[in-house]
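Hi team,

Filling in the usual template for the complex we talked about on Friday. All components are listed, including any nucleic acid strands or ligand strings, so the model treats them as one assembly.

SUBMITTER: L.P.
PURPOSE: interface mapping
COMPONENTS: three
RESIDUES: 798
SEQUENCES:
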Amino acid sequence: MFEARLDQGVLLKKLLEAMKELVSDANFECSPQALSLQAMDTSHVALVQMTLRSDGFAHFRCDRNISMGMNLANMSKCLKCAGNDDIITMKAEDTGDSVTFLFESPGQERHSDFELKLMDIDSEQLGIPDTEYSATVKMPSSEFQRIVKDLSTIGEAVLISVSKDGIKFSTSGDIGSANISVRQNTNVDKPEDATVIDLQEPVSLSFALRYLNSFAKASPLSSQVSLRMSKELPLVVQYRIVDMGEINFYLAPKVDDDDEMDNGNE
Amino acid sequence: MFEARLDQGVLLKKLLEAMKELVSDANFECSPQALSLQAMDTSHVALVQMTLRSDGFAHFRCDRNISMGMNLANMSKCLKCAGNDDIITMKAEDTGDSVTFLFESPGQERHSDFELKLMDIDSEQLGIPDTEYSATVKMPSSEFQRIVKDLSTIGEAVLISVSKDGIKFSTSGDIGSANISVRQNTNVDKPEDATVIDLQEPVSLSFALRYLNSFAKASPLSSQVSLRMSKELPLVVQYRIVDMGEINFYLAPKVDDDDEMDNGNE
Amino acid sequence: MFEARLDQGVLLKKLLEAMKELVSDANFECSPQALSLQAMDTSHVALVQMTLRSDGFAHFRCDRNISMGMNLANMSKCLKCAGNDDIITMKAEDTGDSVTFLFESPGQERHSDFELKLMDIDSEQLGIPDTEYSATVKMPSSEFQRIVKDLSTIGEAVLISVSKDGIKFSTSGDIGSANISVRQNTNVDKPEDATVIDLQEPVSLSFALRYLNSFAKASPLSSQVSLRMSKELPLVVQYRIVDMGEINFYLAPKVDDDDEMDNGNE
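RESULT (copied from the run log):
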């Protein structure tokens, strides 16, 4: 038996909105510690990894580890039927072929249940090594979302350069070129407006803008986003979910003129 | 001579929005008692019946009964040109081939008139017998609209079941199944939030969701909707228009597994 | 060297939105007096003329007259990346082949620069003679925008008639006909709500609605629009930009039944 009750059901709705463009089918892994998911995007370029710790739920019971394969578009259809104030409960039998979502309105005058068929999905869990990154930038998630959206109108790839003073996003395309610089900025009224740079050594890497645009769909989950970069390592784009966990997106850098060797990673 | 002046012109705008998806052409019947309309939807499955009583108008003159055939899409185009605060007057000669809509802005600084050509439309008025229904449910119209919209993402038909405790909407489709239950609920701060059930005997009938979705376009006309159901009778979905009249939608039940006889009504 | 700094960068954004539907490519003419532009629309029927006086800029330097040919759709893409509160600076070398737009957020925490390639565009400047018009109507720009939009749902051309009492817009089409009259109205709480008519002699001219709809995209630039008309002369639709300049649209009248001679201007 798996049962997890989430008072802030809207978090699950936002998570699905953050993932469903990138990933079509995925296994939700249930263990006594957490509800988690790891999946490659449909073009096998980006990786999504999400964890919701069991202690963040109002109620969480997982008798034995199960894996629930779901089509994220269908799951999103169900969750769209939940109100933003609804309490959401997920339920599944250990050996069942379906999962049930219960939605309760705050005043209890409306109850809904949606039963979704489960799927068998082949997947291998990739081990993601713990790494010390050369540069970590925390910045407002809405600012990051706007920058990658704006630059997408000009070019297809973005060069992200981090120095101790700030982070610079550069692109170029047929119509011209663009640079957007955001300064380190900790002297703010609201902590969510801060831009904080933690730098071991300057780093400059190039990424496909269309994936960053997809990742940025997670912005409603958190007012801040963290970007972690090291030469030749995938970029990590992380959104923390208060008191519950996080969603991480991984994207390998593109080879560009700044790289000295051709690693075939185009 | 027919002339009817409506201080709250926005009502006529909302009525057209409620009908124009369902009905393409219809006769507006003018009598000294009322402006009314009855029409089948384009696929001849659902029936719309609207009545605006003459005493609800600021001024109403109808020298003899006339029938004005109009294309509702064209009429809607005209009415979209009226501001939401405008006073709307309809005018027609007894034997003319056009109807004129006058729009006056509240401060009288803008006057508009739109002359629309009338059409000859064959139609027979169906007699709708007065019936005692097994179950009548009054509920917030926005709630009903949301439920039929939500369920439409899962299935094509909805089973509506009314018991003394509440009303349940159920559907199923390729991706799974769904149930939404709304409890009787009269203990509310605002009367428009109440759900009231008047039950002679429990009833459970199945309907095509796409028609219910069309009916629900009338929600802006009234904060509450009434659903009336009896076994083997068409469902009545009613929106009252304060001090003026009402719009009723009729839809025959689908034959489903709960029915004992095949009445060919699919 | 050309450099112009505009504290209210949003004005430049709105100007582009006002022109980019009508004009595809145009030369921005820079002189010590002004930044200006004159261009025919893509179908060579309407003329746009814009002037931003140098004294309206926070900083303006123009060492010698230059002409910068730009694709307005591309320029608009760049300007969409500027925030509404951003300060915008345009920069170009006298003999360069690109123009640079700098965007500074109000708190200086974000700096962006966009370099746009310039184009060679053939264009001749038309001299627009100073004329005394028979009728000048100042009215709320939102009202004008709404009227031409509303009438576009009914017909393709509008007859604009100005008398001492008001201005009347008339159209007709397949579904019927429409007239919208706006009265002279100076007794208003807010000056931007006034409709003021300055009449030498009554005038009545017909114009293609699709161009008026394009012109009305300039409404965000000014709360009032001026329409200037004289028999057989192009209509002038003018939006003033406070403390900076103006944008004028010119459109030749259509020949209609009210005209006595066929000037082939269809």
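MY TAKE: DSSP finds four helices and 18 strands in chain B. The first strand of chain B starts at residue 2 and ends at 6.

Thanks, L.
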